[in-house]
Specification:
By secondary structure, the chain is mainly α. It is 76% helix and 0% strand. The protein is built from 5 helices and no strands. It is elongated and about 100 Å long.
Amino acid sequence: TGDSLWRYCLRVNGSVVPQALSLAVPSLTLTVLLLIFKDQLEDFREEVGLSPSNSTVIWAAVTAPLLTLISFRTSQAWGRFWEGTSLLHAMRGEWFDSVSCLCTFTVGAKTTKEEEVMQFRHTLIRLMSLCHGSALDELKVNPTESYEVLDLVGLDE
């Protein structure tokens, strides 16, 4: 599963990882070079006016918008996650309500055709279980995930 996750992250079409790497690698290179030449740059910093007291102001000016952006993006992601989760539960609830209504409509026929009504109810519940499992299968990330459904043996009769 770890290997497929890396292939999923590093795919070229639809992935943001190559674009992010194209922005991050030059920054990484500049940082490493600055760390290597740190001692030689002390005099240069003093000449330019980047004393330690000025660098904290620059650090705060760069960090504040970055933290604001990260918190906004995180908030958006959480909102989308919970919206998707609530819609998934609403879908399950609607299907449960429709199946229970259909089973309730068969109460009148249960006295005269008990065997057929029970077979209809069992088939209906199995089909809705299969439908819900199919919907969850469309949402899965990992292709090896599987979902349990009610016994399908009665459907082929």
